[in-house]
Design a protein that fits this description.
The chain has helices spanning 2-19, 24-37, 69-82, 90-99, 110-120, 202-221, 240-248, 252-268, 274-290, 294-307, 311-357, 362-370, 375-384, 393-401, 406-415, and strands at 41-48, 58-65, 86-88, 124-146, 149-170, 175-176, 180-184, 187-192, 224-231. By secondary structure, the protein is of the alpha+beta class. Strands 2, 3, 4, 5, 6, 7 and 8 form a seven-stranded mixed sheet that branches. Strands 1-9 form a two-stranded antiparallel ribbon. Helix 3 packs across helix 6 (202-221) and helix 8 (252-268) packs antiparallel against helix 9. It starts with a helix and ends with a helix.
Length: 416
């Protein structure tokens, strides 16, 4: 495939050059195509932060609507649980809210989210709506020729269509994020030269679509790793090639060390051309990207762009800036979550103190007797208050000695 791509590139550039041999457009076209397709590439694993900028230990599944929503949630639960995320499904959610006598119609605003957070603890709620879940089967054929032999290939194709949206609600801070849309239409195809084959299973193709949705959910809330091809320069000057070769065989730390040394070598050599120095800065930036050091990567890419602007370095810089923004948003949300949890703990402590101060004790009863309140009023107060009485033998003797009547003491023993 690589060889064919290079041949096509040369043909494209040749045609453009022939049409506009001395024109600026031809030169720009050549430069852009050459920059994109003729530079050395390596296949590496890049770690990404969660796309939503949220990291959570608990996912709560709220109301779900649409055909196949239960299938998607079931697959998502398996994925989250396997990644050590606690999951509360809708059935358990309803039980927990019922235990707290929390009446909820399924709609969530910031105030409701905060109330749910007090009950459920720090967590993220997902509200899934499926707009389409369907399959389509189609038969086609293709007349072909091999030498003198003509033949027909028959195809039976099954395609799934799953379109859904996911609303994210941070129950700790009460923040409601915009809905994320997911649209997947995978297909499978059977072929035969002896008539139409059977259709691939609709269930298998739907499972593929569900898997794509679950992958999107994973990337929203969990760090994820992607194998990708990226440009990494291998100039002989300044020995950039050594770092390239190290990265190509998976020695990422070694490639980083060599790239840092190569950059210093380039900076100290007065004969080095700006292009090579830009490549050295770019390699350092890409090594920082691989290590997840986005701020340092941005600085290196900016240096490379000043020396030699181009599509490759500008796209790398934009990607690093987006990753930096995601990392910053995670930090901000973590700080907001910590503040919200502290405020919640303070509110709960204050509420507990208020409840404790309102609890009726032996001392309160003795105080009311000493103030001369009638027994009927004291009995009514006991009946309508939260009480925490000490009814041990010693405490009962002290109550009688303090002048508390028998009917009041009996009432205290009943409610405790």
């Amino acid at each position: 495939m690589g060889g064919k791509k290079r041949v096509n590139l040369r043909v494209t550039v040749a045609v453009a050059s022939a049409v506009l041999l001395n024109g600026t457009l031809a030169g720009l076209l050549q430069a852009q195509l050459l920059e994109r397709f003729t530079n050395p590439v390596v296949n590496v694993a890049i770690d990404h932060p969660p796309d939503m900028g949220i990291q959570t230990d608990r996912i709560v599944f709220g109301p779900a609507t649409g055909e196949c929503s239960d299938d998607i949630i079931s697959a998502a639960i398996s994925r989250f649980v396997s990644n050590d995320i606690e999951v509360i499904d809708r059935a358990n959610l309803d039980l927990l809210l019922a235990e707290q006598n929390f009446a909820w119609g399924g709609r969530v605003d910031s105030a409701t989210a905060t109330q749910l957070g007090r009950i459920l603890g720090p967590s993220v709620m997902l509200v899934i709506r499926v707009q389409r879940c369907a399959t389509e089967q189609k038969r086609t054929y293709d007349n072909r020729k091999s030498g003198d032999r003509a033949y027909t290939v028959y195809f039976s194709t099954t395609r799934a269509y799953v379109k859904a949206s996911v609303q994210t609600i941070d129950l700790t801070t009460g923040r409601i994020f915009g809905a994320r849309n997911m649209d997947h239409s995978p297909e499978r195809r059977n072929r035969s030269t002896e008539g139409y084959p059977e259709y691939p299973s609709e269930y298998d193709v739907l499972d593929m679509a569900f898997g794509n949705v679950v992958r999107d959910l994973h990337r929203m809330f969990l760090p994820w790793t992607e194998r990708t091809e990226l440009v990494y320069y291998n100039d002989k000057k300044c020995d950039l090639k050594s770092a390239y070769q190290a990265l190509k065989v998976g020695m990422q730390d070694r490639a980083y060390e060599l790239s840092m040394g190569n950059l210093e070598r380039c900076k100290q050599d007065p004969k080095v051309k700006p292009k090579t120095l830009a490549h050295a800065w770019y390699n350092v930036g890409m090594s920082h990207v691989i290590r997840g050091e986005h701020e340092a990567a941005i600085e290196a890419f900016q240096q490379a762009a000043m020396l030699r602007p181009g599509t490759i370095v500008s796209e790398a810089l934009a990607d690093a800036q987006r990753s930096m923004e995601l990392a910053d948003s995670i930090q901000v949300l973590e700080e907001q979550t910590a503040i919200a949890m502290q405020e919640r703990e303070l509110q709960e402590t204050q509420a507990q103190e208020i409840r404790m101060s309102a609890v009726l004790t032996n001392d309160d009863v003795v105080a009311m007797v000493e103030q001369g309140l009638p027994p009927a009023i004291i009995l009514k107060k006991i009946e309508t208050s939260e009480c925490d009485f000490d009814v041990s033998a010693e405490a009962l003797s002290a109550l009688v000695s303090a002048g508390v009547g028998e009917d009041v003491v009996m009432a205290m023993m009943v409610v405790r």
